[in-house]
Amino acid sequence: MRRLFRGVFIVWVMLRYGLDELVLTSFKKPWLLQVARVISVGRKLDAPRGQRIRQALESLGPIFVKFGQVLSTRRDLLPLDIADELALLQDRVPPFPSEVAIAIIEKAFKKKVDDIFVSFERQPVASASIAQVHFAVLKERGGQHRDVAVKVLRPGMLEVIDKDMDLLRMMAGWVESLSDDGKRLKPREVVAEFDKYLHDELDLVREASSAAQLRRNMADLNMVLIPEMYWDYCMPDVMVMERMKGVPINQVDRLRAAGVDIPKLARDGVTIFFTQVFRDGFFHADMHPGNIQVSIDPATFGRYISLDFGIVGTLTEIDKEYLAQNFTAFFRRDYKRVAELHIESGWVPSSTRVDELESAVRTVCEPYFDRPLKELSLGMVLMRLFQTSRRFHVEIQPQLVLLQKTLLNIEGLGRQLDPDLDLWHTAKPFLEKWMMNQIGPKKLLDELRNEGPRYAKLLPELPRLLFDFLQNNSRGRDTEVHALLMEQKKTNRLLSAIVYGGLGFVLGLIVMQFMVRVRLF
User: What residues act catalytically?
Assistant: First the structure.
């Protein structure tokens, strides 16, 4: 019955904002257009379609707001006006009562909140659709105390999400069955992607482990601070972490007054992003201004502070190499290479003509290169490429869509800090250096060092295995004694060469490891 009422409410909201009229006019059939005009009588539907869709999602509640946020990243599927409007969606969710938060904490740790914390601020410092955050002081052994932030999952979220996801899947099926355009939008896949993101965010232990991984990865960069997780106090619905003190990054005047070098801050943001993507293949994928602060503490002055790790992106070595080669080819205006990379990766059918794809890529990129460097937008180029890829039946990978969303966030943030920021100029040396590390001597040494122990174990067994193979191969054959002796002599020479060569290889690896340890490389 509750699902029925929820469905009725969704239909009412759709009618209120005229989404039914948008669906009918999208078919561009005369009789449907006439129906759309009739049903629009008496309703005020003069607002732009993107605004109406955004307002409808806001009326439907936090899960639909989050869905709109995820959908706004799929600029390869949506018209620009709708994608831009959905990008304005914010989690404007009232906090739930502090008594409920305390009850969740006490249930998770089986202790009274006063036995865990010296003090606990009842008023949350932040509230979103999935969780809210309270500041507290954690009791420690030996009388020491730590300032912490306590993230508490909003109660009943799993049940609410499952109900709304059932309705979204049903609506996705309707959209897909209505027309070819509906199928091209891949609504089922988008809903499945959204479902995965939401359920990942519901597990705060998962978020804590992502934060810990990013903290380790970024430890040597000295540009970004990531809160320490207190694992004794991390549960699926409660997470206790180090309290970070900084200025929100969108308060540029306050940062400038504190003496922060704003252009350097913008460049550091680009460096952090590309380091996470191309060096580590593990990146913070929700870097909007609400999750980024800047430290003004003298010990860490001017460093970024990253918060909220519910959504992280991962890239394989193949993904990283593909992206780096694509970006490098863009910088060099080598559009043929870009087309070849799309075909080599299997993202477009092997029958695709290279010259046609090259022409399409050139059409997208060349207008941007004719502008001053500071006006170029790498995120917009990627977005246009994704849109152009439709006609070539390119399958856009989910991890790259997440990367595009983050890149747009980073680029927008950088331009807000420094309007003269040249993202291309900042990124190009980094990517070229990364490419050299992938194919240069250092990469070879790293591979040899990593694979050395494995081959050192296999090499002593290789002569016996090879001899057994040759001996088994020669059984059952009538060969002359002289020919057999000659074969054995050749085999002995080959085995000797393999053994001595293998020993030399192992000794070389040992020497190389020693030289690496004493920092000769």
Answer: 286
